[in-house]
Specification:
Elements lengths: L24 H16 L5 E5 L6 E5 L4 E5 L2 H15 L7 E3 L5 E8 L16 E2 L2 E2 L3 H14 L3 E5 L15 H11 L5 E5 L18 H17 L5 E4 L16 H12 L5 E5 L19 H6 L10 E6 L14 H4 L4 E7 L15 H10 L7 E5 L15 H12 L8 H10 L6 H18 L37 E2 L16 H8 L9 H4 L2 E2 L10 H24 L7 H33 L11
Parallel strand pairs: 1-3, 5-8, 5-14, 8-9, 9-10, 10-11, 11-12, 12-13, 13-14
Antiparallel strand pairs: 2-3, 2-4, 6-7, 15-16
The structure holds 4-O-methyl-beta-D-glucopyranuronic acid.
């Protein structure tokens, strides 16, 4: 199924020639080592030795040789780690490594018509025209890139299961089997995203999770799938969320729905990944009691302890929806008897759509600073990949994929500068552009946040597309996304005097967030409704801080562009030109955000900018 005129792809951070087809992870490890060691001019022999360390590996370095002890995918992880050190100019050292999380997942939101929901890197890598359509060679490249960062599980199809993707578990299964076969030698396993109502597309009158015929149907179907794909990681489900069917549709609760599928998967060692993104998406903006961030906790906490042990509740990092600033979801702290996966979003839906630069390491660092890493047992991210030549649309957005893979392997890597590593691996450790690129990546988040929705308020985006400013675009909509700005102030009181959301946190965090004087200022308007003349810690009024941030943010975008322009001639011409194009667009976007947000609040507050800058 090779696509004609398929473009040539960048090799991401594995610059040496793509080795031939591997039959097994061990085989892939050998081929990668042979190609990589030759490319980096490293001549100490590297020997692969079998030892059962699960997915982990042990490296032993002596004068004469380097040995990697592991089995299967562990050998590949060891090989990639060794090659990484060599590429970064580090002297290989003896070590033992184990991944912290067994499931290190990517969710593609790809539809079989070839579109990608919230995709900013071209069309689907896997589908086109309502069928599978991919270049097998490119899927091998994809698999080795993922595996070299540490990712081991992928779901190809969107959590919103659009036709004909509901047939991936029956009529289209043979093609899923083929993809599984391409990914397997790189240690990558598949998850299939299923539609909770599947039995009803197959002759049953209901998908009620307690119905005997439904239970039997899932058991039989799951067994048939495992016969074809014995190493399938399991199923992913988005249920009772944004108009998707789920147990509530049939008068049952989330645990009853999840356990139905978990029990079908259990005999085969499969995991049921069940998303917690459940909220009322038909809220009336006049309803001031319902508060969307409270929803997931309110739905799932009462059921803690009722989920089977192979259910993994997948929880978005924030309680709303991947906004530019959100606190960590309280569910990640509170569930005690149910396994949890943290869900991140590499696709930059609200963070610049792979036009604006937005490097995420700091975001994740803040999550892990608050949340002990054993609060979760797996990590998942919505991918930022597509058919674009450079995989992620924006060449520099690949830094997020790299850092993400490393994070899933071991969050301790957050202590390393993964932006610097990524730039060195991608462009060569001696490339003169590395320092500037690393600096730009580190500047990118604060720049973007400054010109975006201020102080944790979120939204303010163009409805549907979610790119660019539209302060009241969602204000009177059904999605529970309100700012409630007026001439006196802005924000929602989520303390005990308000919606009570802050009380979902453990005591210490609750106290911190409840009180506007201790609440981190970046999240002030998430937790509190504040007047424009509220005095911030540095003595500025809140409105002045909003104005200043927006002017600084837009200037920051201009500086990023200026920095990039200094790199002409230091990078391949096509890379330079592609990123230049994105950065020019980012500057326009940043100016729009600056002017629209400042004007919006100026009109409500009537406050003048103390520096007399132009507000419309
Ligand atoms: O934020 C919303 C996105 C939807 C997405 C949904 C989800 C896949 O705008 O596009 O649907 O989140 O996470 O399920």
């Amino acid at each position: 199924m090779t696509e004609k005129n398929y473009p040539k792809y960048t090799s991401a951070w594995l610059p040496y020639p793509m080795p031939g087809k591997a039959a097994s992870p061990k085989d892939a490890a050998r081929l990668e080592l042979d190609a990589g060691l030759a490319y980096y001019g490293f001549d100490t022999p590297v020997i692969l030795r079998e030892e059962d360390l699960g997915e982990g590996y042990r490296i032993e370095v002596s004068e004469e040789a380097i040995s990697i002890f592991a089995k299967e995918a562990g050998l590949l992880y060891g090989a990639f780690a060794l090659l990484r050190d060599i590429a970064l100019g580090k002297k290989p050292e003896s070590c033992v490594q184990q991944p912290v999380y067994a499931l290190r997942m990517l969710n593609h939101w790809d539809n079989m018509d070839g579109t990608v929901e919230r995709g900013y890197a071209g069309r689907s890598l896997f589908f086109e025209g309502s069928r599978f359509d991919y270049d097998p060679e490119r899927l091998r490249m994809y698999a080795r890139i993922l595996s070299s960062a540490g990712i081991n599980t992928v779901a190809l199809n969107n959590v919103n299961v659009h036709a004909p993707a509901q047939h991936l578990i029956d009529d289209l299964l043979p093609e899923v089997v083929e993809v599984a076969g391409i990914l397997r030698p790189y240690g990558i396993r598949l998850l299939i995203t299923v539609d909770f109502a599947s039995p009803t597309y197959n002759g049953l009158s209901t998908a009620d999770p307690l119905d005997e015929a439904v239970i039997a149907w899932w058991k039989q179907r799951t067994a048939a799938i495992y016969q074809q794909i014995p190493d399938l990681a399991g199923f992913v489900v988005k249920a009772d969320s944004e108009y998707r069917p789920g147990p509530i549709t049939y008068g049952r609760n989330q645990a009853e729905g999840a356990n139905l599928l978990a029990r079908a998967l259990k005999p085969f060692g499969g995991t049921l990944v069940w998303r917690c993104f459940v909220y009322n998406c038909r809220q009336d903006w006049r309803d001031q009691k319902t508060d969307r961030p409270c929803a997931a906790y309110n739905t799932f906490m009462p059921l803690d302890g009722q989920f089977d042990d192979n259910v993994l509740l997948q929880i978005k990092n924030g309680p709303v929806d991947f906004q530019v600033r959100e606190p960590v979801s309280p569910l990640l702290f509170s569930l005690k008897h149910t396994s949890r996966a943290l869900e991140l979003q590499l696709a930059q839906e609200y963070t610049g759509q792979q036009i604006d630069l937005y490097y995420m390491q700091e975001v994740w660092q803040e999550i892990f600073d608050l949340m002990p890493r054993n609060n979760i047992s797996a990590i998942c991210a919505v991918t930022n990949l597509g058919r674009d030549e450079n995989w992620a649309g924006h060449d520099l957005a690949m830094a997020n994929l790299y850092a993400y893979g490393r994070l899933c392997w071991n969050p301790d890597c957050l202590g390393e500068d993964m932006a610097d590593q990524w730039a060195k691996l991608t462009y060569g450790k001696d490339c003169p552009a590395v320092d500037t690129i690393t600096h730009m990546l580190h500047q990118s988040r604060s720049t973007y946040q400054k010109y975006n929705a201020p102080l944790g308020i979120g939204w303010m985006v163009e409805p549907h597309s979610h790119y660019g400013p539209n302060p009241e675009g969602y204000e009177y909509a059904l999605w529970g996304t309100y700012l409630r700005a007026d001439r006196n102030g802005v924000g929602i009181d989520r303390s005990s005097n308000g919606t009570g959301f802050a009380a979902q946190y453990p005591e210490e965090l609750k106290k911190l967030y409840e009180d506007p004087t201790t609440c981190p200022e970046e999240m002030l308007l998430f937790f509190h409704r504040m007047p424009y003349d509220h005095v911030m810690k540095d003595g500025r009024t809140m409105i002045q801080r909003i104005y200043d941030d927006h002017f600084e943010g837009a200037e920051g975008a201009e500086q990023l562009l200026a920095s990039w322009k200094t790199l002409e001639g230091q990078l391949p011409g096509d890379v330079f030109a592609r990123v230049l194009d994105k950065m020019e667009k980012q500057v326009i976007n940043a100016r729009n955000w600056r002017d629209i947000v400042n004007t919006y609040f100026h009109r409500y507050s009537g406050a003048e900018d103390q520096k007399g800058r132009k507000i419309y």
